[in-house]
Design a protein that fits this description.
The chain is mostly beta strands and about 70 residues long. It has no helices and five strands. The chain has a domain of about 50 residues. About 0% of the residues lie in helices and about 30% in strands. The protein starts with 8 loop residues before the first strand and ends in a 14-residue tail after the last strand.
């Protein structure tokens, strides 16, 4: 369920997955979004060395959304 004006959030993970975060229902000020599902987008990115010397996989860096032609 969703309230009018609610928005979802998409985030990328180092694993190459995309996460769908949904607002709580009913929407209340200060409420925390919940991770509803992770979708397999692609495999892990290249292993990168961070500024602090640790290493992480690149994962999803950009998400491009497009309108569904049926809407």
């Amino acid at each position: 369920m969703a309230a009018r004006g609610d928005v979802c959030i998409l985030t990328g993970f180092a694993s190459g997955q995309v996460g769908l975060w949904i607002p709580p229902y009913p929407t209340r000020a200060g409420s925390v979004y919940a991770l509803a599902r992770k979708y397999d987008a692609h495999g892990q990115g290249a292993l990168r060395t961070m500024n602090d010397g640790t290493q992480q996989y690149g994962g999803v860096r950009v998400i491009r959304l497009r309108a569904c032609p049926s809407d």
